[in-house]
Design goal:
Elements lengths: L1 E4 L5 H8 L2 H21 L2 H25 L17 E6 L9 H9 L12 E7 L10 H15 L6 E6 L6 E7 L14 H15 L17 H17 L7 H10 L2 E7 L5 E7 L2 E4 H4 L5 H41 L22 H8 L4 E5 L8 E8 L4 E5 L11 H20 L7 H10 L10 H9 L5 H20 L4
Helix pairs in contact: 1-4, 5-6
């Protein structure tokens, strides 16, 4: 359900509209013409007409007697009418509903005579329900919703009528009331469109009704006066706002001007600038149309729209460049065979029961030979073995002697190791990291000879055989400490 507020100036015209006076007169004239034609064709019809007049007089006397006695104002079949397009549902008790349209209009307008005239004294609201709610909208429920709507909106203490129309697919009714109440107070709620929206949403939740259409989907053909212009203006602005040529505020004003819509900025007494949209000779404050149409909000939308277009164009350019690069790469790959890089897989966990330090495992994957202590099951004392990767068999090898100096190493692997060393060096320099541990530097320098099998003294080999179960790093450390201690003892002289 949604409510359309349509204020007006003439109570008589509004009552004539909701009670279909023009349609009633047309139907009456058609019925009279048919009756005259029948009288001309058939002579006996005159006698029937005279008898009919006598019958009308008797019916009029009965109607007068019926009017003399008080009747309940229940809103059912109150006014005799020919068309079936409307029905008077209810009215306040002070309205003369039996005396015709003119009397009804005078009774609704009576409170306005107690004060100075106002601009739009006629209150006219159309309550439109969704077509899917047609099965549940009875006359009783429509009256209840209409009265609840007026109570929540604050339109009380004023005369009104509720008329239901059947000329559309969706159920709807019209409320006609005085915008001046019995105390002479002006009912300004008919200009509070935000409150009208809140009340409609609350009623939809209470009566479990479907929400009506927005202004963009409203059928303006059934509106009149200023409301029709206002709703049409909102729909026109919405269509022009999404035009591709609208990129900023100036282009927005330009396209509105091309379609007969101008925009004015007026500074109020508070110093705040308000925006007005003008069409023909009427102007509307932007909040009366939609709060979305303020200049601040629209400029934000235009900036976001331009940024989005920039990002989209950049993404398109990047996509095109990537496709071009991929095409070039694929073409070059077809013309030139690619060399596969060789990578040494890590040693299996617990390889031959050897105790291998993590840094030795890293050296192994760099193609170097490492020395590890291995104790076979049949031996009491283990021995140090040399482990390296054999590129011919693609398997690790373990021997008591170091590998030959001229063993096979692929060029692709040598290049890969060299490039990784360069990248690691540049990263460490770029990050400002320096290696300052003396033990680490000395360990690296002393271990350089072990990769090729050179630089191992016989004394160290003998010391290794006496201290099984140690890694090369641990053995070097302990061997150096013992050598230093021996040198210190030799340097002591007894006097």
């Amino acid at each position: 359900m949604i409510a359309y507020i349509i204020n007006g100036k003439s109570f008589g015209n509004c009552v004539d509209y909701v009670t279909r006076r023009a349609l009633e007169e047309r139907l009456y004239n058609e019925q009279s013409c048919q009756q005259k034609t029948a009288e001309k064709k058939y002579e006996p019809a005159k006698r029937l007409a005279s008898e009919h007049e006598a019958h009308v007089d008797i019916a009029g006397a009965r109607w007068q007697s019926h009017h003399d006695s008080p009747q309940p104002n229940n809103g059912e079949d109150i006014i005799e009418h020919l068309s079936k397009d409307w029905h008077l549902l209810c009215a306040t008790s002070d309205i003369r509903i039996y005396e015709g349209r003119k009397a009804m209009a005078e009774d609704i307008a009576r409170p306005t005579k107690t004060r100075k005239p106002i601009k739009d004294p006629v209150g006219h609201i159309s309550l439109d329900f969704h077509p899917k709610d047609k099965s549940i909208i009875t006359d009783e429920l429509m009256v209840e919703i209409a009265q609840d709507y007026m109570r929540q909106l604050g339109l009380t203490n004023t005369p009104f009528i509720v008329v239901r129309h059947y000329d559309k697919e969706h159920p709807h009714c019209h409320i006609v009331f005085s915008r001046v109440d019995y105390d002479g107070k002006i009912l300004t709620q008919t200009t509070n469109f935000k409150k009208n929206e809140r009340v409609c949403k609350a009623l939809n939740r209470t009566y479990q009704l479907m929400q009506g259409k927005s202004k963009l989907n409203t059928d303006v053909s059934k509106l009149r006066g200023k409301e029709k212009v206002r709703y049409q203006l909102v729909q026109d602005i919405a269509k022009l706002f999404i035009h591709p040529s609208v990129k900023n505020w100036n282009s927005y004003l330009d396209i509105l001007w091309q379609h007969g819509i101008t925009v004015k900025e007026k500074t109020g007494k508070s110093g705040r600038t308000n925006l007005y949209y003008c069409v023909s000779k009427q102007e509307f404050w932007y909040k009366k149309l939609d709060s979305y149409l303020s200049r601040e909000n629209l400029e934000k939308v235009f900036r976001a729209r331009s940024e989005k277009q920039k990002v989209t164009s950049q993404m398109v350019q990047q996509t095109v460049s990537q496709k071009t690069t991929m095409a070039k790469t694929s073409a070059s790959s077809k013309s030139k065979p690619q060399s596969k890089s060789v990578v040494i897989p890590p040693l299996p966990d617990g390889f031959l029961g050897a105790r291998i330090a993590p840094h030795d495992l890293a050296r192994y994957q760099k193609g170097e030979a490492i020395c590890a202590y291995i104790c076979n099951p049949n031996d009491i004392i283990g021995k140090h073995h040399w482990i390296w990767y054999d590129f011919k068999t693609c398997q690790p090898r373990c021997e008591l002697t170091p590998p030959p100096a001229d063993r096979y190493v692929p060029d692709a692997f040598s290049k890969h190791v060299a490039s990784s060393q360069v990248s690691s060096t540049s990263k460490s320099q770029g990050a400002g990291i320096t290696l300052t541990s003396p033990s680490f530097r000395s360990g690296v320098q002393d271990d350089q000879g072990f990769a090729s099998g050179d630089g191992i003294s016989d004394d160290f080999k003998l010391w290794l055989s006496r201290h099984p179960g140690l890694t090369i790093e641990e053995a070097l450390h302990r061997y150096r400490e013992e050598q230093k201690a021996k040198r210190r003892r030799k340097g002591i002289r007894l006097h």
